[in-house]
Request: fold
Amino acid sequence: MRRSRRYVLGAALLATGLVLGACGPGEDGDTTGAGTEPEQKARLTVGSDGFYEAQIVGAMYALVLEDAGYTVDTQLDIESREVRLPAMESGEIDIAPEYIASLLSVLDPDSGGATTPEEGAEALEPLLEEKGLELLEPSEAVDVNAFVVTQDLADELDLSQVSDLADVAGDLTLGAPPECPKRPYCIPGLKETYGVEFGDFKPLAYGAATVQALEAGAIDVALLFSTDPLIEQKDLVLLEDDKDLQQADNITPLVVSEILNDEIASLLNGVSAALTIDNITPLNARVLIDQEDPEVVARDFLQENGLL
Amino acid sequence: MGTTTGAERRVSALRDVFAWFSDPATWTGYAGIPTRVTEHLLLSGTALALALPVAVGAGLFIGHTRRAEFVTVSLANLGRAVPSFAILALAFPISLRLGLGLGFWPTVVALFFLAIPPILTNTYVGVKGVDADAVEAARGMGLSGTQVLRSLEIPLAAPLIVAGVRTSAVQVVATATLAAVIAGGGLGRFIVDGFAFGVRGIEGRQMVMGGAILVALLALATEVAFGLLERRVGPRQVTVRAGRDDPVRLGPPLARDDATR
Reply:
């Protein structure tokens, strides 16, 4: 018994190791351009949190900088913001894609949030300055909680925006991650801003399980992120946030002030200007569903948009 | 943060959990401990009740007839080898398609397969372990196969069978926490919800630790309850009667309590 347990533990550790190993970035900054440039440009490290969308945008930042002659290292698999921010303060990571409203809620949990990126950026400026960081131009691509229904239910109940739920929600079941009853942009916000109170709530893991339950009719309304490729793939209807409950979580470059110059700013702002909800969602699908390499996906996008 | 020692953190964690258990809100309502314990027992009990006849039936059959032993035991042991979480993931969409809903039935299916191997193996080993001479003697007295099974093999194997049920029950109770992952009830709710609320926050931490303690206590209580039952059925003599002949007393098989471990 004792011995077999130890084997199980060993196997579990081994498996964990393999998975972690397999998740690592396959890229160690290309150093060939370093000496050939006429003027020596800085060596930069681009980091991103370890999920598909942040990885794709992080790869875009790295590619445009590399194209302009910078030597770029990448670290596109950082566990979370709580790990990444200290690493940026200490200068281990110079540039990362951020989500404005989420960043504000972490740095100032008592703030009222931000419904526009400008509002968020303004509230963040002094907080970031202390850390030697600053935000560049926000993109239009915004990743927020989105309430979705099946096409059938949308037709049946004539649903197109969240406020349409107010009269019918009492007979409907919401499926969302277990923290939804505690989060201001989920159940409490729906009640306060829209007067929407669901008859029942089913706590489900984010993603595929939620969509399966939605398709089978075990839940009627599901929470997904607005740029989740499953929405399009499964032909789901995203209810419009007509009373602006959701926050301005626009994808925006966060940069260490010390390394920032006009060229870097204009390169990264160029990426921001090109990104929208509509064009990042299919990129997410390529990584999440088709399992493509985020860097390949990022490169294609930049080339299509004339940024490379 | 940097100045708190490990010991201080452990003490404050204990205090948090104690505060959670002594908060009346923890004990009331649809998300209170009594509701969750009831759901947990219902989940575990249903799975065990479904697994019991199947596992005991199969164990008796192969133990008595000595047929298909290898295949059956190997099949049953798959239940041990395949993680319950994987079975749950497979059962979830099937349950949805059949209209059986989210949490309860997929979990029961996963627990059913988890519950089978210990009961089946113990029943089989118990029946097979009955002294061959005793079986021979009973047959010689004119008992039929079914009579041998009923009046000799089952009673003599009973302590081992109950030991198997006990092992199953403890595993099932501990694993029923999985239901919470797919919107089911039970004590896993505290753990999954607490984790989702965030273990950096005090509430999330309290729920995760409180839930884990409750699951452990319930599994322990299950172990004790079946242990007592085991002692009541436990090793004894069996009296076999055939026609008007004098009754014959037969002893239990050699103790093989650890046959399944």
